[in-house]
Amino acid sequence: MESLFVPTLIVALAEIGDKTQLLALLLAARFRRPWPIIAGILAATLANHFAAGALGTWVAGLLAPAQIGWLLAASFAAVALWTLIPDRLDEDEGSRFRQHGAFLTTLVAFFLAEMGDKTQVATVMLAAQYPHFVLVVIGTTLGMLLANVPVVLAGNFAAERLPLVLIRRLAACAFATLALYSGYQALKLGGAA
């Protein structure tokens, strides 16, 4: 059972304050439908963490840690800029994003947000450490849900009062900070090589 409990605890703690918690809040405020968002988080996390456990070790062997750091820095910077651009969802209920619904939007957004995230990396390491791969993936997925479901539910109740422009700017600042940190880490790793 250690293959289940340790990954659950590690990911739940790692997820606190993570970018996907902010994404959960934004999706809850935007769609105001918590259950399809929660289902999307579950499906995206299962798919992402299964892929992480199966392929993560192989990919990590292809790139140097500094290269991975620079790739993350560029990705976070791009997401920071993208976050500042309001989509039509805020102004137009007929937006192409709205037509895909809360579940599909959450599924895609969470799957992509988890790419290269610390919880994805943790899943790779935990799957290598513990003998029961399926229990590790279930545990890391439970950890994600423990951290994000309360945010979705709270965001859903507070959606009418949330200033989406301010939240978008704060999210952009958070992603920019992650970009700077990843670049700093890449510089440190590059200097150590």
TrEMBL record:
It comes from the Bacteria. It is found in: Membrane. The chain crosses the membrane at residues 37-61, 67-85, 97-113, 133-154, 166-184. Keywords: Membrane, Transmembrane, Transmembrane helix. The keyword Oxidoreductase does not apply. It is a multi-pass membrane protein. Belongs to the GDT1 family. This is GDT1 family protein. It comes from Pseudomonas benzenivorans.
